[in-house]
Amino acid sequence: MRILLIGATGMVGSRVAAEARARGHEVTGVSRSGKDGTARAQASDADAVAGLARGHDAIVLAVAPPRDGSEPVAPLLADGRGVLEAARRSGVRRLVIVGGAGSLEVAPGKRLVDTPDFPALYKNEALAQGELLEVVRKEAGDLDWTYISPAAVIQPGERTGTFRLGGDRLLADADGNSEISAEDYAVALVDELEDPKAVGRRITVAY
């Protein structure tokens, strides 16, 4: 499989690249900086991304909103819409999006991001990721998309290959912890690329 990976130098993107390559897939990495051997492009630049995507089997969008204190929703939505349009122009229907956990429900109609203890540092980013999910649900019906939310906590760790998958509800263990390593998140994402089971919907991965 030929995969165009946008955001290939980030915490999650770099692990998705490593997991996919370890399974024999060809990965074309893209980043804003063009460092570490990646192609340089902005996700919001549909023409540039379409040019890079042609001939690939799937696009993975693994970019995060800015954390510099600026308003994060507009930049992330511009990136998302740019990639949706690039997929259409390039003829690559398969799109997998690295999403956020904040939009997952902790109770019917109540999102994690709306709970009192949600960290203020990540709230704007979580709201932006939730907006992107809604845009994809409304505007990407012509594409084979999957949006994958991590657990509430995702960080570098071990690759165990053992985890649970869910839908729109936050997954937590018996002690109330909701965690996943970036390595195991990457396993779940590449599994979905290889054997699509969640086309047109959001899933989540956690221990």
From TrEMBL:
<feature type="domain" description="NAD(P)-binding">
    <location>
        <begin position="7"/>
        <end position="196"/>
    </location>
</feature>
<dbReference type="InterPro" id="IPR036291">
    <property type="entry name" value="NAD(P)-bd_dom_sf"/>
</dbReference>
<dbReference type="Pfam" id="PF13460">
    <property type="entry name" value="NAD_binding_10"/>
</dbReference>
<dbReference type="InterPro" id="IPR051606">
    <property type="entry name" value="Polyketide_Oxido-like"/>
</dbReference>
<dbReference type="InterPro" id="IPR016040">
    <property type="entry name" value="NAD(P)-bd_dom"/>
</dbReference>
<protein>
    <submittedName>
        <fullName>NAD(P)-dependent oxidoreductase</fullName>
    </submittedName>
</protein>
